[in-house]
Every structure is written in C-alpha cells, then in structure tokens.
C-alpha cells in the first residue's frame, strides 16, 4: 500500500510519497540514522507536489485552521488534485499520513481519504522537516526561516489578542499589586509614626488614621513653627476645627525633642511617599472595580470586586475558574488545610477565599458551611455566564445575589426562597432588554412573584409529618370538636331546665354531704 505524507510548512502545503520503509522496525536506531542521512532518506521519500500560500494572511488562516483541526477549501483542492481518486465501490490502495489525529479524522470525513497518524508517520515527518529546504530547490533556507518567524509572530499575536477588553491578566496583576501596596503602606506608616513621634509624640493619640497622620506631619513639619495661622489648613486636613485646635495646643506643650533641618527633610519625604502610595491605592481600586465590571460583571454583582478578583487570580484566569466545579471553588485558597486534613484524616475546611464575603459573615456559626456551599454554587454559575456569554450584563448576578439573600433569610427566619428557574426567567427577561439596568415591569414579574408567595413557609428545622401522624392529628381534632360542641337534644334540655330525676339526685347528694 502506497503511503503519502502531508507536511504543513510556513511556505505552503507539501505532499510526499514514501516507499520501501518497513513499519515493523521503524523504532530502531538504524531507521533514525537513515532519517538524519539525506542520501538514504531522499531515495525513499520523494516530493510529489507543493502548493505555496498566496500571502501572509492566507498562511495565518491556514495555520489557524490546521491547529483547530479543520480542512480549508485550499487544502481540500490540493489533496484531491495530488492524491489518486477515491471510489466508493473499491477500497483505496493508499493512505495519507498526517501529524495531527484531529485533522486526519476531519480529512477522512470531508474527502473520504484514508488517513493515519502514528509514530512511524511522525518519524518520517521529522525527516521531512529536517531536509525540507533540500527537497525544494528554489527555496533557500534563509527564506524558509523568515517565513517561519513571521508566521509564528502573527499566529501568537492573533491568539493573545482575542479580546482586549476582556483580558483578565490585568485583574490578576491589579489584585496582586493591591495586596503588595497594603503591606508597604502599613509598614511605611508605622515607620513614619515611630520616627515622627520622637519630635511630636502627642499627635499619635489625636490623629489615628495613618493617611491623615501623614498629611498632618507633612503640613506641620516642625512643631515649633506651628501657630494659629495654620489653623485653617489643619481644619481642611483633619475635617474638624476642635481637633485642629487640639493639635496646635499639643504642639505648644509637646515633650518631644527637636530635629535638625536634615532630619525634617527626610521626614517630609517619608510623609510624601506614604501620601502618594495611599492615593495610588485609591486609583488602583477604582481601576479594579471598572475592570471587573467589564470582565466578570455577574460575579462582581454577586460577591464583590475584591473577592471576585481574588478567585480569578487564584484560579489563574476566568476560564479556569469557570471550569472549576462548585466544590473546588468553595475551598479555593484553603489547599494547605485541605491536604493537612486529608493527611491527618481530620475535618476538611468548609470555605476558602469566599469566607471574605459578607454573606458568610452574616450567617450563624452552624449555617456557615451550608451557606458557603450555596454561595460557591452561585459563584460557579456566575463565572460560567461571564466566561461564555457575549453580552455584558449584570442581570444574572443581581438575581443570583437575591437568591443568596433569600437563602440567608431561610436559615434565619425560615422563609422559603423562590425557585432557581423562576429567578432565571426574570434574569433572562431583564437581560434581553436594551437597558440592562432597568427594573423588570410589574406585569411581567407578577406571576412569578405570586408563585413565590403561594409557597408555604416552613421553619428551617421542621420535618414534614408522616401520613400516619397526620391521620392521628385529624382524629384528635375531631374528638376535641365533638367534646366541645353539645348535641341538639342536650342543648334543648339545658334550655328547658333540670328534669325531676335530676332534681331528686341533686337533693340526695346534698343530704349525703351534710351527713358526712
């Protein structure tokens, strides 16, 4: 059986014919040496046809199609012209060797050409790749290298630049930078307080906030020069005139030591560094909020910007987070505790990064575990919607947040929440509108809300009675009603008064009591 080989190069498609190779011994060292030797390899593998690409854009499109396992029109026409025709009635006497199994299966579906992809074919394609410029006499090795380099750059650029607005790499870098800034600001502010307290120790007790403390220290500089003229500036910084007067009075009676002009310059630079770091942190937080609303709006609406960004950062990307099941998302960030518990056969952790959500904090101690499991389930749904939905909407995240709030009320008050299908219908109706921030009309929301109201409210710890218990309760109620409601003849006798026999019995009872 003849064997043809399809080789995809940066310059174009090439078809080779291999004859005289023994598949049984293709793994031996002799076959490997024959592949590296051009004289021996050129006698067995010969070039059948070559189809160059029209342009760099055509080469990029063909490369993308091959990587995804699709057969383009150009590749299909090249194979039909080069290879023998395949008849439906007869079995073909040749096969096509392809490097990618996915592409081989698609070629067989489209053209009915028998394809194979194994180690023997890969070994032959390795030799073709090594001596490809020698098979094509007009193509120079330098030209082939330039074509490979250009195609590699354009292919990588196209893969990376799929959607600029939804690249989650900047969110990962922003949340990491935010954590680093928090550590630096805390350490720098503590160092500033320690240094400036030698000069003005009373200021620490008056101003507690480190940002205001740094601004006051930058404004005051030397406490000996502080007077009532700077009272207006201190009031703007502190926000309270009484506090500003207290600072001025404390500076006049301060017990701190004096600092040299050089030391005061260093302290002022230190305060400026802290102020700039705090202001940059505020800008970074605003950038993170805007970026999260673009990348994962539903996850942001459900759990918040910071917690959502930490989940994406820990998972590696939004796609990886969407692939995670809810059980994995629940303990994301608590891997050390999980493996420690598995090793020691103890209790596994109930929550990881989602513990920082406000819903977990509001739940009771007994319900924190079920609440974390329910919240992880909703976060998994929200991340998948954000990853695979083309429209940018917050309708689903808002409804998922309402569901979590209803579940929290169910744990606290026993109020049963609405069904998930009803809430998703409302979310879809809200998402289909042009303005996603508009509330759903009362007419469309009425039937679904009525369903929620009609459902019976149960306590969280109540258990439904069995049918036997229900029968007993009904019988007891009937007995109580029979005892309370008198029969008609009894009621008539009471209305008419006591009978003669009843009067005699009553007098007899009175005589007995008197005798006793």
TrEMBL record:
Matching SUPFAM superfamilies: Nop domain (SSF89124)
One family name in Pfam for this protein: Nop
GO molecular function, one term: snoRNA binding
Name recorded for this polypeptide: Nucleolar protein 56
Magnesium recorded as keyword: no
Family: Belongs to the NOP5/NOP56 family.
InterPro entries according to UniProt: Nop56/Nop58, NOP58/56_N, Nop_C, Nop_dom, Nop_dom_sf, NOSIC
Residues covered by the Nop domain: 295-413
Subcellular location: Nucleus, Nucleolus
Source lineage: Eukaryota, Viridiplantae, Streptophyta, Embryophyta, Tracheophyta
Main location (coarse class): nucleus
Keyword tags: Nucleus, Ribosome biogenesis
